[in-house]
Specification:
91 residues, mainly alpha, elongated
Length: 91
């Protein structure tokens, strides 16, 4: 079975929690490690496209909220790929 090394203070805290719960360190640590894999992907490329798109839309909404009232009402940002590369001669 693979093993991992954790700092002594972390292990002591896990051991104390396990003792208080009447269980083992492994019984506390394994579910926590499994949950960590579910919560945050290691990189954006690990996200399914639909989740990535939802995250980008949420970020866009935050940006619009932050910019609300700071730009003229008729301001439109063209952040399309075409407009970004237009200044490079359309490459």
């Amino acid at each position: 079975m693979p093993t991992i090394t954790v700092p002594d203070d972390v292990y002591q805290r896990l051991a104390a929690r396990a003792a208080a719960a009447g269980t083992t360190v492994e019984a506390i640590a394994v579910p926590a490690l499994a949950q960590a894999l579910k919560e945050v992907p290691l990189s954006p490329s690990e996200l399914p496209f639909i989740d990535w798109k939802k995250n980008m839309q949420a970020l866009d909404a935050v940006i619009h909220t932050l910019m609300d009232g700071r730009l003229p009402p008729d301001f439109v940002l063209d952040d399309s790929r075409e407009s970004i590369y237009e200044v490079c001669g359309g490459r």
